Amino acid sequence: MQLYLPIAEVSVNAFLLLGLGGLVGLLSGMFGVGGGFLITPLLFFIGIPPAVAVATSANQIVASSVSGVLAHLKRRTVDIPMGLVLLAGGLIGSTLGIWVFNLFRSMGQVDLIVKLSYVLFLGTVGGLMFVESLRAILRSRRAGPRPQRVRHNRLHALPLKVKFRASGLYISVFPPLAVGMLVGVMGAVMGVGGGFLMVPAMIYLLQMPTKVVIGTSLFQILFLSAYTTMMHAITNQTVDLVLALILILGGVIGAQVGTTIGARMKAENLRVMLALIVLAVCFQLALSLVWTPSELYSIDPVEAT
């Protein structure tokens, strides 16, 4: 069944979109990530313009984050003060990212910039994730105690310290602000929630307890993604509601199946699979940038002044 997307100005099979949303939901349920870093490039592959794909994919991140935040709030595993500091940095970064996005869009270079950003980002993250996953598998096969993580670093000596009771931390607000800003810029320019970057940063950089990391990350991502979606809708008019609703429906169904599958697999094997998927998407995007297009030249109609 062909469906015309008014904002994207393309016709796409509705069942293909539903299946795409279901696939990303499946991966989200299996690997515990928002899926924004996969749904956006996959939308590129089926002909959705990058500007629309970036702006619309944030809607699915919002929808998938709501239930997670509510569940963690019931368990009291959300550090709300820390989440608010991360959110403050995220709003600043998102506003900056929207400005950069609009700048490149006015120059007609947003498609190239978004795709290049994905190639560099997915290649780096996928490579690091793959290496770390292999190391984790090798460590699990060795006997002996695991090395202890260092509890303090230079970031703990920065000024303007605040006590975060739920995390048991007394640290400067500057590191979480910087992490939030980075995730905010990524969300605006690339249409990702940033959870797969924020979670390691919260554990290894901010040294937060794992039990509050996921809930706090979802808390920040929920509000940041909603803000990013609103800003794209206001400034660019690139949010396609029809596309968003179909992706959300497929994602909700797929996430339920993915959660069941993921619970039966080892964490190390899941991370290796996720890394391979990320690298495969990165490779496909890189090829699309160097392939010779089917139409070497195109002429856009320009109104006479």
UniProtKB/TrEMBL annotation:
The chain crosses the membrane at residues 12-39, 51-71, 83-104, 116-138, 185-206, 213-235, 241-263, 270-291. It comes from the Bacteria. It is a multi-pass membrane protein. Signal peptide: none annotated. GO terms for cellular component: plasma membrane. It is found in: Cell membrane; Membrane. Keywords: Cell membrane, Membrane, Transmembrane, Transmembrane helix. Belongs to the 4-toluene sulfonate uptake permease (TSUP) (TC 2.A.102) family. PANTHER family: MEMBRANE TRANSPORTER PROTEIN MJ0441-RELATED (PTHR43701), MEMBRANE TRANSPORTER PROTEIN YTNM-RELATED (PTHR43701:SF12). This is Probable membrane transporter protein.
